[in-house]
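Q: Could you fold this chain for me?
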Amino acid sequence: MTQPEPTGFAKIAVGVDFSPSSQNALALARSRFPGAQIRLLHVTDARVTTSPDLMGGVTPAVFDAGLLNSLEDSDARRLGALMQDGEETEQLVGDPVTGIVEAAARWGADLIVVGTHSQGALEHFFIGSSAEKIVGRSHIPVLTVRLLEGRS
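A: Sure. Below is the predicted structure, expressed as structure tokens.
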């Protein structure tokens, strides 16, 4: 049996938010980088305990540890269901962009793979995209994967 040609990327961190675009990015990482070590990174977004304010930011709400624990447990089950043999997972809590960038660097990833989401112009103007922010903050190469129209 012939071995797959090395791609130069031995350790690939894949940001997973359970959306169709992140599942597409995970599928691409698995198919395009055979033999690479893959780590699925998921960040339970701690901002769920905040509410929007009038200035376009967020205001901390009363911290609800029970809600955060429930989300973490649910996310852990979903992450476990996505993982394939030989893959690793890492689950964090906090800001997804910072969490993915820092976890990938700590692990020594050669590449970060993330899906991109379609956004309206107004939403993009005010909050930008997580994928864009990961590209801007990461010192590791980032591959963004767009989900083709009509696929989910």
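A (continued): Residues 65-82 form the longest helix (18 residues).
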